[in-house]
Specification:
Largest sheet: 7 strands, mixed
Number of domains: 2
Bound molecules: zinc ion
CATH architecture of the largest domain: Alpha-Beta Barrel
Helix content: 25-40%
Radius of gyration: 21 Å
Shape: globular
Length: 435
Amino acid sequence: MITGTILIRGGTVLDETGERRSDVLIKDGAIAEVSEGIGVQAGTQVLDAEGCIVSPGLVDIQVHFREPGREESETIETGARAAALGGNTAVVAMPNTQPPLDDAKVVSSVLEQGRRAACLVTVAGCITKGRAGIELAPMGELHDLGVRIFTDDGDCVADANVMRRAFEYALALPGAVISQHAEDPALVAGGHMHEGAWSARLGIPGRPGEAESTIVARDIALARLTGGRYHVLHMSTGAATQLVRAAKAEGLRVTAEASPQHFTLTDEKCSGFDPVFKMNPPLRPESDVAAIVAGLADGTIDAIATDHAPHSPETKELPFEEAPPGMLGVETALAVAITRLVETGIMSLADVLAAMSWRPARIAGLDAHGHGMPVVAGNPANLCVIDPFETWVVDQQRLSSKSFNTPWEGWKLTGKARHTILRGEAVVAYGEATR
Ligand SMILES: [Zn+2]
């Protein structure tokens, strides 16, 4: 465990206020000094940041850590360690656990474990009891425990009137946001990949992009009707991106996130029937991928979130149509984003960090917990030190997650978290977890 006084030396600080060469001194869990050439006192541990970016810690607002209920695939402890290795200091775990996070007792126990983990694990609460889409969950009680994101993720809230009442109820809960897994269940029923040329050729039943855009259109109309706050989880189509762009131009309180797989991989990946490429919403054709990239580049899409969805080999390695959807993400997201968006000149590193740290922190209310905050004296020391030029090859055996279902196996990526600092403790130092 590396705690006490830590000096991050020789890096370039990059946060929402800009970029400057600076050392960062950390004492008692907080940033004590940010300036060039800070001297080393006795007892100070030095973390080298030469050639690195010192950023507010990354914040992933869409992960599945499988606890309670599916601990053979991931736990809060293992998921948080993997997330910390990916540069995250805070994550939001989705509520489709067993039992689901629709009740104050379950939520309290997960939050308590999440406070002790290698990154702060907070949770999204269910919109409806049992994620059944019928009766609202006790959102007020969950909000009292600190829950800010509400979603039935894994499933879409299909009933428009239930969704309307959720928006109205959330108006009384400061900072609350109604989030949606936007896929109309009737339109995607029985589908296993994007409905298009590849699904037709492979003979696999499809999930049309319209299942996403129709729900996003409806939910934006409900946000307009109620004045509520709406967030689109893992947005994957150009049509939905255009709807969000228009909603923002209109001044509605609408935000969206995209996952690395949806701005990088296409549905052609399913042509080998490898279940590692199966997910919901599914991988889309090139036109959608290009639209998601454009949405990230122009800020229509606020955040990059992984939808980290571990599945043990026993449950995932099945015929394509029987395998569960989802892929790993927390340890590779930063590198995929740098490789796909920064190295190609599409986005600056500052814009990628905005989408991976301070903007998602704000959407989830995690700025109030000291995440995504500017690197200045007095702020809590939740930081990550990134080598933006380090290249590495993804090896599923060397990832820290309990599961192995990465779609990036064998990819050569650029960019890696070297150190991750959580509340003043180096939970990752030189690329290794310290606990
Ligand atoms: Zn989802």
